[in-house]
């Protein structure tokens, strides 16, 4: 009997450890197979090989059709300019803010203002920005009629301007908080952050003006840590569809939006052209990455001599004022956009130049919520399943790292970011082709699976640092008391990680809630979520209903983060003395 | 006029609790040593002098440098150089780059020659192209000193600058630093735990008592 239970015990231990050690391979599989499989299944149809459509001859007719698309050049130009300009702007403003407020309490305040924006889905942000800059939007109401002398809403070009300025505005506002918080995350690292702050002070002592000191001393060490987030932003900005769909022009749209339309067209032959387009998109995003890296090398070489030329300031006083003004403008813009959104969702009759609606009514909320049941259920169900799965896989992988006492291979660490640095529009179509072949009816499962690809990297990023910081002595003490690895994991490590796990869950849910293109494609249009509804409503239906959906899109992730913030105060408190 | 750093009627407090009181004149070439247990406000004194006192602290009093009141000047306009415990060399620059960083702007060739000459003087000839991390602790301390001096400060603060060096090195570096201070006739204030530092400085020694703050360890 005793022998038996012993053997049983050993089996159990082995089982847990075996699963754990296997999990990194599993992680690699669920990331590499769909992404590379998806890319491959875009590549083959692009060259004319699509058995599903009884086309099995290789050829270039997909590309020919693509070249003959009217306005292709404009599409490409719009894609490049919006992607590049918004990324450069977000990056430059991030640097200006960091340098101007490096040692000031304002940096933390700005961080607090910006953090919630990070979890607002792109679609909701786009809707809010669109409302603000529209001819009858908040800005034009505030300056009318006293300044503009507009008695009626003017014929503006925003949003949907053909140059993509609205898209650039939306993307920049959304990516700026991301880059800024990434940079602050680097500066919050205990050793590196302290060293950079001290070196900045050294430069000040040597007579360098604060902003110049940041650029000459802090930035060269900070930039390498920011490179990956920037590249991810660049790829996203050049290939996303939500912002261009809501804020961009229609004739012609950005390449990504056009590809999406071709894929969804009833004419299946357009799918060949769409695949060719996806390949072109891949080249454009890749080209932008290459351009960024080349520019980076060039700037680093050109700035080598000026770094040590002894010049203490480059009009710092002016730049400081410009940055403060810019920061205030951005905060005011964001504030106005949110206020406008809330007002629209509650507005009864709202005559043009009036800055406030005549009555506030709950009608739009009531009628929207009455119809929201199904999308809301889908949003939550997909989000919860994908996030839970991502959290469990991540925890197993991180545990595997600790059990085997060696960090994940560099290859694995890079692969985790794969879905973030490959334009999703390029591999999603291929993936959908495959999914349709394998199990066409399982659209719910398909959506969950595709969401997982985007949720996993963020969950992993968010959990990894806290898991790796766990004091290994607790686990050793527990093990020396005869606790099995499984119980160490469940009873010692997980309770200590309660707060970070909740944050990771909230982040995973927020990412899943915000997915538009993956939901639309993998669900074959049959799975509607709050986000897909919001995007559909944004172009057409009532501005008021659209505002309600955008607000619900913003509120959902915020609830998640608030729970993640409150719950640890009541559970497993002892772990956070 | 003789270079001087004057602290007039400084009263430094943390959340309404008085940490220290100080009134001192330091003339060029002299080193004032401040000793005292941690928590007595030594580092806050240096922060106040460089204009980086955290907002939790409160200070009244004035600081005059060469006859100018610099109370309201920001850190980067005070011309006060600081030598820290760690050399804090910039790891994105070479040794020569670190030194050149501190020098006033000017003719590129002359600056280069000056850097080489300065490195040679402290026994680091030919090491300009190396990465600071490849130098020994003593060599790094020398580069940090050069960087400080070539920025032509008007006063120098020493924040336990020798505490991380081993005994023999400590004596050498200390001697080099004090020699340079005398040679450049710079007023200097040194904060230290170590009595041998205080003796070597050959100047006035002020020992801070934890005033009013009974909890200070």
Report on the architecture of this protein.
The complex is a heterodimer of chains A (577) and B (217). Chain A is mainly α and 577 residues long. In chain A, strands 1-2 form a two-stranded antiparallel ribbon. Chain A folds into two domains: 9-49 and 362-577, MetI-like fold; 60-354, MetI-like fold (Orthogonal Bundle), CATH 1.10.3720.10. Chain A contains 26 helices and two strands. Chain A is 75% helix and 1% strand. In chain A, helix 3 (72-100) crosses helix 14 (316-346), helix 8 packs across helix 9 (210-239) and helix 11 (255-264) runs antiparallel to helix 12. In chain A, strand 1 (49-50) and strand 2 form a beta hairpin. With 217 residues, chain B is an alpha/beta fold. Chain B folds into two domains: 1-79 and 153-217, 3-Layer(aba) Sandwich (Rossmann fold), CATH 3.40.50.300; 93-150, no CATH class. In chain B, the strands form two sheets. Chain B has a five-stranded parallel sheet with strand order 6-7-8-3-9, with helices on both faces. In chain B, a hairpin with a 2-residue loop joins strand 4 (57-65) and strand 5 (68-69). Mean pLDDT of chain B is 90; it is low at 213-217. Chains A and B meet through helix 8 and helix 9 of A and strand 6 and helix 2 of B. Chain B: This is Fe(3+) ions import ATP-binding protein FbpC. Chain B: Keywords: ATP-binding, Nucleotide-binding, Transport.
Taking all Cα atoms into account, the compactness measure Rg of chain A is 26 Å
How would you characterize the largest beta sheet of chain B? 5 strands, parallel
How much of the residues of chain A is beta strand, in percent? under 5%
The computed structural class of chain A is mainly alpha
CATH superfamily of the largest domain in chain B: P-loop containing nucleotide triphosphate hydrolases
C-alpha geometry of chain B:
globular
Give the second-level CATH assignment, the architecture of the largest domain in chain B. Answer: 3-Layer(aba) Sandwich
Helix content, binned percent of chain B: 25-40%
Strand order of the largest sheet of chain A: 1-2
The CATH architecture of the largest domain in chain A comes to Orthogonal Bundle
Mean pLDDT reading of chain A? 88
What is the CATH C level class of the largest domain in chain B, in words?
Answer: Alpha Beta
């Amino acid at each position: 009997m005793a022998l038996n239970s012993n053997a049983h015990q050993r089996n159990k231990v082995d089982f847990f450890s075996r699963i754990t050690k296997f999990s990194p391979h599993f992680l690699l599989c669920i990331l590499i197979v769909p992404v590379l499989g998806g890319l491959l299944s875009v590549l083959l149809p692009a060259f004319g090989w699509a058995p599903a459509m009884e086309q099995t001859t290789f050829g270039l007719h997909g590309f020919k059709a693509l070249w003959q698309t009217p306005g292709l050049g404009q599409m490409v130009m719009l894609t490049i300019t919006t992607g590049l300009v918004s990324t450069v702007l977000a990056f430059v403003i991030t640097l200006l803010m960091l340098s101007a407020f490096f040692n000031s309490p304002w940096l933390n305040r700005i961080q607090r203002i910006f953090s919630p924006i990070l979890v607002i889905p792109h679609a909701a942000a786009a809707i809010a920005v669109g409302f603000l800059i529209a001819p009858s939007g908040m800005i034009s109401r505030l300056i009318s009629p006293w300044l503009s002398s507009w008695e009626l809403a003017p014929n503006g070009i925003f949003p949907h301007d053909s140059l993509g300025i609205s898209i650039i505005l939306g993307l920049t506002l959304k990516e700026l908080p991301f880059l800024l918080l990434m940079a602050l995350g680097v500066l919050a690292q205990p050793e590196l952050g302290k060293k950079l702050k001290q070196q900045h002070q050294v430069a000040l002592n040597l007579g360098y003006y604060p902003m110049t000191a940041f650029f000459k001393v802090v930035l060269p060490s900070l930039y390498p840590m920011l490179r990956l987030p920037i590249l991810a932003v660049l790829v996203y900005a050049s290939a996303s569809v939500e912002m261009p769909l809501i804020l961009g022009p229609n004739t012609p749209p950005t390449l990504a939006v056009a590809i999406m339309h071709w894929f969804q067209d009833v004419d299946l032959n357009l799918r060949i052209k769409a695949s060719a387009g996806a390949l072109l998109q891949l080249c454009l995003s890749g080209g932008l990455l290459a351009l960024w890296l080349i520019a980076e090398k060039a700037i680093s070489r050109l700035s080598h001599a000026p770094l040590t030329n002894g010049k203490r300031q480059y009009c710092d006083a002016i730049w400081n004022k410009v940055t403060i003004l810019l920061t205030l403008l951005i905060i005011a813009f964001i504030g106005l956009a949110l206020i406008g959104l809330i007002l629209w969702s509650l507005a009864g009759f709202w005559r043009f130049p009036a800055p406030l609606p005549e009555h506030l009514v709950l009608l739009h909320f009531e009628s929207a919520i009455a119809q929201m049941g199904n999308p809301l259920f889908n949003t939550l169900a997909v989000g919860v399943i994908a996030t839970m799965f991502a959290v469990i896989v991540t925890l197993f992988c991180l545990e595997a790292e600790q059990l085997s006492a060696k960090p994940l291979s560099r290859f694995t660490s890079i692969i985790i970011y794969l879905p973030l640095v490959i334009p999703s529009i390029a591999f999603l179509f291929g993936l959908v082709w495959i999914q349709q072949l394998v199990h066409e009816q399982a659209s719910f499962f398909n959506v969950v699976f595709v969401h997982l690809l985007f949720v996993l990297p963020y969950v992993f990023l968010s959990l990894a640092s806290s898991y790796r910081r766990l004091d290994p002595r607790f686990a050793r003490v527990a093990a020396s008391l005869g606790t099995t690895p499984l119980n160490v994991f469940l009873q010692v490590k997980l309770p200590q990680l309660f707060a970070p796990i909740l944050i990771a869950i909230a982040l995973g849910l927020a990412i899943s809630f915000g997915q538009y293109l993956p939901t639309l494609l993998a669900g074959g249009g049959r799975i509607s979520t709050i986000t897909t509804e919001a995007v559909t409503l944004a172009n057409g239906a009532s501005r008021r209903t659209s505002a309600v959906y955008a607000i619900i899109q913003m509120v959902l992730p915020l609830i998640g983060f608030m729970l993640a913030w409150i719950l640890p105060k009541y559970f497993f408190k002892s772990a956070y003395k | 006029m003789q270079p001087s750093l004057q602290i007039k009627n400084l009263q430094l407090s943390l959340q309404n609790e008085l940490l220290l009181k100080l009134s001192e004149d330091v003339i060029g070439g002299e080193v004032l040593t401040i000793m005292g247990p941690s928590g007595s406000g030594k580092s806050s004194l240096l922060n106040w002098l460089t204009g980086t006192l955290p907002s939790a602290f409160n200070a009244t009093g004035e600081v005059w440098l060469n006859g100018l009141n610099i109370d309201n000047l920001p850190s980067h306009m005070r011309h006060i150089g600081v030598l820290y415990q760690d050399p804090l060399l910039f790891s994105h620059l070479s040794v020569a780059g670190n030194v050149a960083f501190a020098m006033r702007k000017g003719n590129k060739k002359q600056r280069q020659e000056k850097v080489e000459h300065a490195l040679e003087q402290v026994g680091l000839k030919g090491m300009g192209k190396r990465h600071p991390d490849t130098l020994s602790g003593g060599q790094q301390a020398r580069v940090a000193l050069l960087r400080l001096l070539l920025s032509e400060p008007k006063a120098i603060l020493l924040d336990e600058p020798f505490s991380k060096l081993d005994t023999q090195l400590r004596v050498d570096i200390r001697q080099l630093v004090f020699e340079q201070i005398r040679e450049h006739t710079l007023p200097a204030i040194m904060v230290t735990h170590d009595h041998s530092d205080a003796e070597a400085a050959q100047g006035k020694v002020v020992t801070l008592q934890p005033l009013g703050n009974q909890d200070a360890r």
